[in-house]
Amino acid sequence: MADPEKLFKVNVVTPDGLVYSHRSSIIDMRAVDGRREIMYNHAPILTPLAIADVKVKRSREMSNEVDHIAVNGGYIEFSNNVATIIADSAERARNIDVSRAEAAKERAEKNIKEARQKKDQQSLERAQVALRRAVNRINVYNTIK
What we know:
With about 140 residues, the chain is of the alpha+beta class.
């Protein structure tokens, strides 16, 4: 078990409010420029996040647990041993409605096809982002199976 003084606070916030709040020994995420890991006493950082899985390793009595959170972009700020992720949307793996995510994936694939046929670049880009978000949610959900 990690020493309590070696843990830091992790908060994930969306426009709907606080989605996640726990103490952690390490957080692993994908920034827009590559993978990042943050541990206790990490140097202050502010960086944009990619649409990806955020892994929060937390310790509880005699066991280590990793929470997976589907984050659809946003930012992470770390200072004074507090990591705050601000995202448009974020869901813990256990809260993801996978059938809804799969339906969103199918819709996005259909919209991509239609946008390509119409040569509508703006619609294509929106549909590609929707597809990445849906795939991210499905992948994060599958980590708990």
